[in-house]
């Protein structure tokens, strides 16, 4: 059997034995099942999930996008939803809970056991975008007084309920974090060795209110499976795992790509987003940039005399303006990416500006040489000189705008990713028009 066979059965194009479907789905990875369900509505998704045991249903639900999870939650009876939610990982359970409306949350909570209710309330209380909002409470803790043998026995009992036991965290009676111990260390240690003799005291702990992107970077930098999260009193309250860090990085990259294209935030994936949602995500910046580009038109109107006297100038206008926008987009993309990875900070602007000016100067000169011959052919020596000089200055201006705008935005509290793409291009277009026809007016009139 295959997913295509299952699809044909769901759409009524072929018959399928229920036992065969059940066996196929049981042998399939939860991520593959979730990918298959993305093409169907919630009612059909539940028909497929019915073939799975409750644990795997929860696992599949965890692989779905947040919008798809919410759609499934809203289409299920409360008791059924509560049963699946109970089996979900603690952090995924809290994320789904936060995505529901207040009325839906209040309807779900009474159907959960007290332990799950309290855990959801606690995890859901942390500010979105922080370590607390992405951490899980399914972590293993040990007392420093235990021996290696006792610690292994404890982990053996707790393993089914923990997201990872590869690293256990050592805490005192007040749950203050003292260190951690890796599973291989426990296995290789002599059975009677006290944990406090082999534990690692440097934990790499992050604060519960630390930015989630910063936490994800630390996990990537230190190449660890998880980082512990502590409160103001250094008590452990959760862990952020590598898969959560990957989700954060994916989310941040997606957000930056959308902003670089001047697209607003989407509550669902592009494939499932409605026409209205896609319209709202794109219309604001497009309308704003339309009015911004009026300045380009006003600049052209201001130089009507020089344009009417030297019509060949218009032939080079699209070429020059596009070159400035392209150079600006390149500089902005490099700067925003360097900021996102932590390579560049506000204090680096001066040094980067000087270097970018030199690079842009060389780029502009190279492009000016390439275009000079066409200028001679289309308009003569004077036009060629104007076009070549304008090319150098426009590429220089576009590059410096693309470099500087991310620094300006981050200085005033905006995401620098907004500077990429259409915004830089629009500003560079305005500057390019003024530079080009300003030079033409000075040399030709």
Your description of this structure?
This protein has 445 residues and is mostly helical. The chain has three domains: 3-125, MgtE N-terminal fold, CATH 1.25.60; 141-248, Roll (CBS-domain); 293-444, SLC41 divalent cation transporters, integral membrane domain (Tetracycline Repressor, domain 2, Orthogonal Bundle). It is 66% helix and 6% strand. The strands form two sheets. It has a three-stranded mixed sheet with strand order 1-2-3. A three-stranded mixed sheet has the order 4-5-6. It is elongated. The model has no long low-confidence stretch (mean pLDDT 85).
Going by CATH, the architecture of the largest domain would be Orthogonal Bundle
- What is the count of β-strands? 6
Total helix count? 23
- Please tell me the overall pLDDT: 85
- What's the main sheet like? 3 strands, mixed
Name the strands of the widest sheet in spatial order.
Answer: 1-2-3
Provide the number of structural domains: 3
What pattern of helices and strands is seen along the backbone? HHHHHHHHHHHEHEEHHEHEEHHHHHHHH
User: What name does the CATH topology of the largest domain carry?
Assistant: Tetracycline Repressor, domain 2
Into which percentage range does the β-strand content fall? 5-15%
Which structural class fits the helix and strand makeup? mainly alpha
